[in-house]
Design a protein that fits this description.
Number of strands: 0
Strand content: under 5%
Number of helices: 9
Order of helices and strands: HHHHHHHHH
Radius of gyration: 18 Å
Structural class: mainly alpha
Largest sheet: none
Mean pLDDT: 89
Length: 208
């Protein structure tokens, strides 16, 4: 728990944490609206306000472990015009938002890093680095195909109908399964390959 030993870094991580969680859920809600589902907007979740998306356990996990979650945006797939396609779009929207944030932050540091460092110093650099790390961690974690994570919804969209009953059985127990995997460390077997693939999307050459 390095952040617990370094309260300054902990404090400087909070902006990245709040943005990553809020933008992730906002992107889900916005994508749902684009494909015909107004539910998130009706419930006031089409918002960048962190308080609208706050989940205590998921936030603490993301802050201290590197992966976690926010309060899921309500989605009603009955509004989808093309149910399976739209489910994939909405499910991946949050991950795409986090990945886009990380990419733009890398590009900012590549082109304006020296000026930013002169302006904001080491604290400003830490904020930018945590913006990359937190968003990448959240994106990778949510791609794990275990309910209630986004990756499981993508899996649901591609499963043949005859296997959906098995998926729904796992979904009912998904949170417990996920917590067991987190507590035992087995989650790293799934998380690490995904995060390595996502890091390959970042334009890192010469940025750091």
């Amino acid at each position: 728990m390095r952040l617990l030993r370094d309260p300054i870094t902990l404090l400087l991580t909070i902006p990245a944490l709040l943005w990553a969680l809020s933008f992730h859920e906002f992107c889900h809600g916005l994508a749902a609206k684009w494909v015909g589902d107004p539910t998130a907007e009706r419930y006031g979740r089409l918002s960048l306000n962190p308080l609208d998306h706050f989940d205590l356990v998921g936030t603490l996990m993301l802050l201290f472990v590197g992966f976690g979650w926010a309060k899921p945006v309500p989605i009603n797939s009955r509004y989808f015009r093309h149910p399976r396609r739209d489910l994939v779009i909405v499910s991946l929207a949050g991950v795409a938002g986090n990945l886009l944030t990380a990419i733009l932050t890398v590009l900012f540091l590549r082109f304006f890093g020296d000026g930013w460092y002169r302006l904001a110093g080491r604290p400003g650099l830490i904020v930018m680095m945590q913006m990359i790390n937190i968003n990448m961690g959240l994106a990778a974690f949510n791609l794990i195909p275990i309910p209630p994570l986004d990756g499981s919804r993508v899996l649901e969209a591609f499963l043949p109908f005859k296997y959906l009953r098995y998926y729904y059985w796992v979904e009912q127990r998904g949170t417990i399964i996920l917590l067991i995997l987190l507590l035992t460390g087995v989650i790293d077997v799934l998380f690490n390959p995904i995060i390595r693939v996502l890091w390959a999307f970042l334009p890192l050459g010469g940025a750091f």
